UniProtKB/TrEMBL annotation:
Family stated for the protein in its record: Belongs to the RIB43A family.
UniProt KW keywords: Cell projection, Cilium, Coiled coil, Cytoplasm, Cytoskeleton, Flagellum
Principal cellular location given in the protein's record: cytoplasm
Subunit structure: Microtubule inner protein component of sperm flagellar doublet microtubules.
Coiled coil region boundaries: 55-89, 203-238
Record-linked Pfam families: RIB43A (PF05914)
InterPro entries: RIB43A (IPR008805)
Protein source organism: Haplochromis burtoni
Name this protein carries in UniProt: RIB43A-like with coiled-coils protein 1
Localization (cell): Cytoplasm, Cytoskeleton, Flagellum axoneme
Lineage, uppermost ranks: Eukaryota, Metazoa, Chordata, Craniata, Vertebrata
Length: 378
């Protein structure tokens, strides 16, 4: 058997290498704490930014190309229009030259009729040898031509004169209408001035009448004020005299009471009352002393009640203090028992923790134990 070197399948190796590179990139992306926690893929974002910039550059280049194409098309269109205009101008010039050279009015067949045989084409054949088809002027064709032309000229003159007369009449009529309008405006101005003058006279008369009326009113108001002042002075003098001579100023004791009858006491008039009598003052003083004695008795009774109540409160407070002392003693004993129980629990927990750390969990895991996890992205 001969040893044959078979070709190596490079596509399989490339596929394996591509998968290994993808797996390495995936691991780096997954096991990167910053990217995994923050959720930010910088490579993808940079790729998107580059793609966006590339797209913008392509759009700018396309816009520039379109602008250049548009400018080129505009220049081509302008050149085409200029060429067409130049071609049209040359064609018109050549046509004008052709007309001036080969189609002159003097070379037409009826040039002898239009230009009086000046420069017309001369027929070399005698007229007696020409046939009926060569006839140009027939018998009776130009009869009355001059008369008709004169009549037409006179008619044109009459029409023109009539038109001029009509324009003159229209102009005169317009001037007349304008003059009437001017007169009407002048009359309106005159009437306006007259009306303004009449209004001014009426306003002046109205102001005079109003001033007279205001003066009369002012005079009447002054008279009324004077009469009112005099009446108030008289009333004030009468009131002063009445006040000076009344019972209030003279201090009459009988004037402060009014008998009502029926065994009831007399009614006091507040507006005339001048004070109490000595008997009334003495009665009020006696009643006041009686009220003071009653008030003192009430105060003594209140003090006795307060002293009894204070004694009762003192007894209650002493009983409450004794109850508080008993409750405090019970709480102290309860705390002592609780502290003993907690100390016992702490000793038991310490013994359990020592048993776990020194007897049960003696084989601690090394770093190699943790490195065997998360070695693949799948």
């Amino acid at each position: 058997m001969f040893k044959v070197d078979l070709p190596v399948d490079e596509s399989t190796e490339k596929t394996v290498e591509r998968r290994r590179a993808a797996e390495t990139a995936r691991k780096a992306r997954i096991f990167n704490t910053r990217l995994r926690v923050m959720g930010l893929d910088l490579d993808t974002l940079n790729q998107q930014v580059q793609e966006k910039k590339h797209q913008q550059n392509m759009e700018k280049q396309m816009d520039k190309a379109l602008d250049k194409l548009r400018i080129y098309q505009d220049e081509a269109l302008v050149q085409q229009n200029n060429a067409e205009e130049e071609k049209r101008r040359v064609l018109n010039s050549e046509l004008t030259k052709y007309w001036a050279t080969h189609q002159r009015p003097e070379d037409s067949r009826d040039a002898d009729l239009k230009f009086g045989l000046k420069g017309a084409f001369k027929i070399a054949i005698p007229e007696n040898e020409l046939g009926p088809a060569s006839m140009q002027i027939f018998k009776g064709e130009g009869v009355g031509e001059e008369l008709r032309m004169r009549e037409q000229i006179r008619k044109t003159e009459r029409d023109l004169r009539a038109q001029m007369d009509e324009n003159e009449k229209r102009h005169m009529r317009d001037k007349h209408i304008e003059m009437l309008a001017s007169k009407e405006l002048v009359q309106q101005d005159v009437r306006g001035a007259q009306q303004a003058a009449l209004e001014e006279v009426y306003k002046r008369a109205s102001r005079t009448t109003l001033e007279n009326y205001n003066q009369a009113l002012a005079k009447e108001q002054a008279e009324k004020l004077e009469e009112q002042r005099k009446r108030e002075e008289q009333e004030n003098l009468a009131e002063m005299w009445h006040t000076m001579t009344s019972d209030m100023m003279t201090e009459c004791a009988e004037a402060t009471e009014r008998q009502v009858g029926g065994g009831r006491p007399p009614q006091v008039l507040p507006d005339r009352w001048k004070g109490m009598s000595p008997e009334q003052l003495k009665s009020i003083q006696q009643e006041r002393e009686q009220q003071c004695l009653e008030r003192q008795k009430q105060r003594d009774a209140e003090k006795i009640r307060e002293a009894a109540w204070d004694l009762k409160l003192l007894k209650l407070s002493r009983e409450a203090e004794k109850e508080d002392l008993r409750a405090a003693e019970l709480n102290r004993e309860r705390r002592i028992q609780m502290d003993r129980y907690n100390m016992q629990l702490a000793q038991e927990q310490l013994a359990q923790q020592e048993y776990l750390n020194k007897r049960l969990y003696t084989n601690k895991p090394t770093k190699d134990y943790f490195y065997q996890f998360n070695t693949s992205s799948r």
